[in-house]
């Protein structure tokens, strides 16, 4: 089951939703709005290690933050 990230076009709330099928209606958890835009998601491995190599150091990604874009674009 894929998890998609959305932004509500009514209240600008960022949220994630598990989508069971493409016909599923997506509602904002804050305002119950139905006008939601899907956001581009970037896969980021966890802070654990695999085979003794840190995922953080092997990927070269050192950004912190969270949200739909990793927190670097000030969209929230």
Provide a descriptive summary of the structure in words:
The chain is mainly beta and 76 residues long. It contains one helix and five strands, in the order E-E-E-E-E-H. It has one domain (1-44, 67-76): Single Sheet (Rubrerythrin, domain 2), CATH 2.20.28. The protein has one helix at 55-59; strands at residues 3-8, 14-18, 36-38, 49-50, 53-54. The strands form two sheets. Strands 2-1-3 form a three-stranded antiparallel sheet, with no helix packed on it. Strand 4 and strand 5 (53-54) form a beta hairpin. The model is unreliable at 52-65 (pLDDT under 50).
Q: Could you give a short description of this structure?
A:
This protein has 76 residues and is mostly beta strands. 7% of the residues lie in helices and 24% in strands.
User: Could you report the average pLDDT, rounded to the nearest whole number?
Assistant: 72
Gross morphology is globular
Which architecture per CATH? Answer: Single Sheet
| Uncertain ranges | 52-65
Structural class: mainly beta
List the main descriptive attributes of the protein structure presented here:
single chain, 76 residues, mainly beta, two-stranded antiparallel ribbon
Give the topology, please.
Blueprint: E1 3-8, E2 14-18, E3 36-38, E4 49-50, E5 53-54, H1 55-59
């Amino acid at each position: 089951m894929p998890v998609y990230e959305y932004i509500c076009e009514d209240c600008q709330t960022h949220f994630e939703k598990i989508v069971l099928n493409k016909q599923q209606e997506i509602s904002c958890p804050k305002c119950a709005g139905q006008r939601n835009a899907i956001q581009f998601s970037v896969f980021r491995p966890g802070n654990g290690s695999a085979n003794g190599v840190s995922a953080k150091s092997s990927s070269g990604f050192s950004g912190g933050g969270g949200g739909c874009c990793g927190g670097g674009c000030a969209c929230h």
